Amino acid sequence: MLAHYSQRRRQLLLGAGALAMLAAGRRLASADSFPDRPMRFIVGFGAGGSTDIVARALADKLGDGSGWKVVIENRTGASGNIATQAVASAEPDGYTYLVGASPFAVNHWLFPDFPVKYGRDLTAIAPLGATANALVVHPSLKIRTLTEFITFARERPGAITYATLGNGSSGHLAGVAFDLRAGTKMVPVSYRGGGEALKDLLGGHVQAWFASIPSVLEQVRSGQLVGIATTGPQRASWLPDIATMAELGFEGFDVRLWIGVLAPAAVPAERLILMEQAIARAMAARDMQATLDAQGVAPFTMSRAKFDAFMIAEIERWRTVVASLGK
Hints:
It is built from eleven helices and ten strands. The protein is α/β, with parallel strands linked by helices. Strands 1, 2, 3, 4, 5, 6, 7, 8, 9 and 10 form a ten-stranded mixed β-sheet that branches. Helix 2 crosses helix 9 (269-284), helix 2 runs antiparallel to helix 10 (286-295) and helix 4 packs across helix 11.
């Protein structure tokens, strides 16, 4: 009887072990099969803008390098908050990501009641690139220098319009900061996407735009628009003949657009790591770098941990800026 009991116990243990191995195998198979359906990159800005351009280039590269299917969804409006809300509310399964930009950090203070918060609801994956803005005007203004533009705007308070991609966008903040420094009073006109803003500027419906360089690079080079100054700490390599605001007397003027990938905070760590590694491989590829360079976007890379620290610091930095603007 004791021998029968021992044999029965061994069978039960073996059965339990087999079940455990089967469950582990299923978990591994599930992990190995991820992703087994298309992913979504949700972009808070319209087609044709720099964030959209970079998101689509990355999606294509991930498809080439990893065989992943990545679908771009443009959820425009509310300075990117509609897209942010969509990603924060998505199932945290690693299939939905936000391709966000600088307004994400600013929105924490412009919209203090907005329910989505970095760290609690969203987490950083990887930065993709960064670019300064360029102050561009319609050629019909007959303006070629920053001094001429300042004089022109000062003489017409409340009459000069400039395009923005919404309250809190880098172009809007650059315009407000410019007004404060130059003693001008321009009127921002919001657009849902860079393509719409460019169309109206070329049509003469607005006079100026603190545009991300990729959005207007071709038009400046062709002479359809006049580049007055750029807003980064150094001259942009794509527009080397255009001086920075700092060079032209606006010391410390620095407004840049950064672009990065974020995810719902509850996504399993192994899937976040997988995406981080895939993005790193994609961004290191020569053809991807060439694509970014052609669009006027400079490489901007760091680990997920460092990007998280950057995001925290960036959000805090804008607290003071927004407070100083009375927002």
